[in-house]
Amino acid sequence: MPELPEVETMARDLHKRVRGRTVVGVTVHKPDVLRGATPRKLQRVLVGRRIVRVWRRAKLAVIDFDSGARVAVQPRFTGSFVVERSGRGADQYCTLHLALDDGRRLHYRDVRRLGTFQLFTPKEFEAYVSKLGPEPLEAGFTGDWLYELLQRSIRPVKPLIMDQHRLAGVGNIYASEALWRAKIDPSRSARTVSRKEAELLRDAIVSVLGESIELRGTTIRDYAEGAFADKLDAYNRAGEPCRRCGTRIVLTHAIDGRATYFCPRCQR
DNA sequence: AATCGTTCCTGATAGC
DNA sequence: TGCTATCAGGAACGAT
Which of A's residues 31-90 have CB atoms within 7 A of nucleic strand C? Predict the structure, then answer.
């Protein structure tokens, strides 16, 4: 399930492969992944346009075109990109593709189709991203800023740091990991987190995301890239010993109905 | 304004 | 063996 490190990896890889290419055709097989455009409109807006950059914001892979148009892809669970020479490498899960001027095709592939492929004008894109929280790997994300955010909410700290409108890019895996590193119980009301703990949590979020990007993300279930799965301390380790204290890691669904992994002894 | 419940989708898995 | 039921999960949306 792609979160910030996985989408960063997807965007960097795609940038290297398609930057500078011009779209010569658009084919949509599964229109339900489209947002903001019909297949006809997508074709009208993108054909003849050159891809100038592929980058990431929050958990979105963003494709910039020379006209200023942008496509934001939300892979959610099973979305991915496939770039191939016409004919080979595509399957029934490829929902749409952009034909490129060098004969290759850029496919958006999505088994469950909970992901989205959204066309924006520059103004629409700006309005959308302005509602997202800050990027945790950029300068504004400090311990003081996080402390102030946590102070304003009575919600459990884990869903709060996963709220994309508060902080961008952190999902279920890295929330569990960061809280384990910071020794904070995921169910604690956000406002009970001290300034010192907020500083530790900030550092944990930055370090876990950075280390995962270096390993190209976490391969678990749907997302099939990256070696960070071996480095997980909490997520997906139910019943296994905590690497700090040896206590068995607990899996609970009591917080927002989401799988949450934590050490009941050293996370307080 | 903040928070909560519902919905989208299909492969993998469990249970009979 | 082959069927059915259950589960996973991010975020938009409507309701409170």
Answer: 58-59, 74, 76-77
A165 CA: nearest nucleotide by C1': C11
Q: Is the CB of A152 under 7 A from strand B?
A: yes
Q: Is the CB of A44 under 7 A from strand B?
A: no
Which residue, of A95, A129, A163, is where some domain finishes?
Answer: A129
CA distance A96 to A40: 12
Q: What percent of chain A has pLDDT over 90?
A: 74
In chain A, the number of structural domains is: 2
Q: How far apart are CA A202 and CA A179, in angstroms?
A: 10
pLDDT tens digit string along A109-164? 999 999 999 999 998 899 889 889 999 999 989 999 999 999 999 899 999 999 99
Other CB atoms within 10 Å distance of the CB of residue A117: 25
Domain membership flag for residue A137: no
User: Domain check: are A99 and A163 in the same one?
Assistant: no
**Domain stop point among A70, A97, A129:** A129
A113, A155, A258, A265: which one is catalytic? Answer: A258
Domain span holding position A180: 143-262
Cβ proximity of A231 and A211 under 8 Å: yes
Distance of CA A19 to the CA centre of its chain: 21
Say if residue A18 is in the same domain as residue A52. yes
